[in-house]
Amino acid sequence: MKGPSDTVSQGLDRLLPTYARADLAIVRGEAARVWDVDGREYLDFGAGIAVVGLGHCHPAPLAAAREQLDRLWHVSNLYRTAPAEALAARLSDRFGGAQASFCNSGAETIEAALKYARKATGKPGVVALEGSFHGRTLGALSVTGQPSKRAAFSPLVPGARFVPANDVEALRAAATEDVGLVLLEPILGEGGVHSLAAEFVAAAAELPALLCIDEIQTGVGRTGSFFAFEALGVTPDLATLAKGLANGLPIGALLVADRVAGAFAPGDHGSTFGGNPVSCAAACAVVDAIDDELLANVLERGAELATGLASLPGVLGVRGRGLLLGAVVAGTAAAIVEACRERGLLVLTAGEDVVRLAPPLTIGTDDVEEALSILAAVLDILGSEAM
């Protein structure tokens, strides 16, 4: 008997139109491949928007989740569970000493960071970056530096101000006495795949405010180290994780460094489903899988992909690190994404002229070469049509 994931019902109009969905119904995935309802195969270089870091249906988190499903699904945070505590300990070890608060999504981790900083410092002000993206809930949207996403929902939570990435003087000028939090993406993912300079992040760490590094897209090995901030030489006060943490199961985590712990007390924050045993069990398996060998693969395949992209006609530049890359294109990114999809390659946009690539961290050289071949064909065809 077929289940809901095997067929496509006529219920599309019953979904609120919050996404401009492609007319593609995916029903199965394995490693870096997915298949649609008609059985057509696609090479997935989006990985569910940088989520399926180990590839679709990776055996380690799959086995961990299945084993936990047979034991316990949910008891709430009124009680202890082994998977949540095991995951918190693993993340603390990777961070260098931290406490964790678990939730279900990246936006929720930002909400938790905003609340923690306000409670810890007593200051409501937040400095974030122009072009940044931190989520679509009201608080997270309030600190997202993209006016087009904010305009329809004003008035938002007050106190946020935005500065250009890598502008140290603007950063210092914005950090007035009422600022309790500086919120930075180490690589602005949706904002064009722009990397922050180490000097800029170091300057942020010196300010009299808590520094939160948003690792929702860059964390869990995506850039070649478990946290992207490791390559910047700064350990923040707070860090947020989500996307790739459980390889596709919903989870988010706010990490609070031991040196600034103690602001939250029981009742200050919570999440009914936060720390779900099944998601935490899968996340433990993911964290264990992010070893030196896998991180080396991220850097090696990322270098191959970046070099190949830079050589393609119509690519004006390549940005990013590891397997979070943005190809600046002469044409329209959305048109390239659509044309790639028609030829069996799934990629993403990061603005009007940036094609974003975030394949599974387990990707191999053959898959990189196949993706580059499809992109080359698409760019050649679209370039010819533009003449």
Would you kindly provide a written description of the structure presented here, covering whatever features stand out?
This protein folds into two domains: 12-57 and 291-386, Aspartate Aminotransferase, domain 1, CATH 3.90.1150.10; 72-289, 3-Layer(aba) Sandwich (Aspartate Aminotransferase, domain 2), CATH 3.40.640.10. 34% of the residues lie in helices and 19% in strands. It contains twelve helices and 17 strands. A hairpin with a 2-residue loop joins strand 13 (315-321) and strand 14.
How is the topology of this model organized?
Layout lengths: L25 E5 L2 E4 L4 E4 L2 H4 L8 H11 L12 H14 L2 E6 L2 H16 L3 E5 L8 H5 L4 H4 L9 E4 L4 H7 L4 E6 L2 E2 L5 E2 L2 H8 L4 E5 L23 E4 L10 E6 L19 H13 L2 H19 L4 E7 L2 E6 L3 H10 L2 E2 L1 E2 L4 E4 L7 H22 L1
Parallel strand pairs: 3-15, 5-6, 5-7, 7-10, 10-11
Antiparallel strand pairs: 1-2, 2-3, 4-12, 8-9, 11-12, 13-14, 14-17, 16-17
Helix pairs in contact: 2-9, 3-9, 10-12, 11-12
